[in-house]
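Key result, reporting period 2: structure in, sequence out.
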């Protein structure tokens, strides 16, 4: 069973920075998983933020390109999301995702961490 635990959320002013971390556990070959971050704002559907494959290929939502950076440490089974130049519209609950073979329909989710961007 795959388990994911996020950390690093909080309150930050517009223009500020935060780094989210996700620790993955479970008896599995993590190199088979595409790891990702999604977010859900109140009243909105959950949306993709960024994904990264085991060999480092990344994909970003247009809204975060140039501001967010996803990275992973396969040895430690961790994935991070570095966020800079944060905007109020980045406010959401951010979820870590582990998709076997990139199949989101079969993926596991963390419990989420709140990011609030406000002055």
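The corresponding designed sequence is given below.
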């Amino acid at each position: 069973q795959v388990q994911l635990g996020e950390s690093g959320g909080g309150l930050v002013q517009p223009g500020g920075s935060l780094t989210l971390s996700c620790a993955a556990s479970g008896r599995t070959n993590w190199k088979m998983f595409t790891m990702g971050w999604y977010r859900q704002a109140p009243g909105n559907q959950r949306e993709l933020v960024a994904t990264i494959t085991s060999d480092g290929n990344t994909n970003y939502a247009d809204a975060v390109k140039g501001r967010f950076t996803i990275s992973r440490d396969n040895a430690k089974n961790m994935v991070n999301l570095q966020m800079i130049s944060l905007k109020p519209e980045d406010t959401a609950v951010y979820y870590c995702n582990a998709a076997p073979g990139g199949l989101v329909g079969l993926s596991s989710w963390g419990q989420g961490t709140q990011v609030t961007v406000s002055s």
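The chain has a mean pLDDT of 94. The first strand starts at residue 3 and ends at 7. This case is discussed further under Risks and Mitigation.
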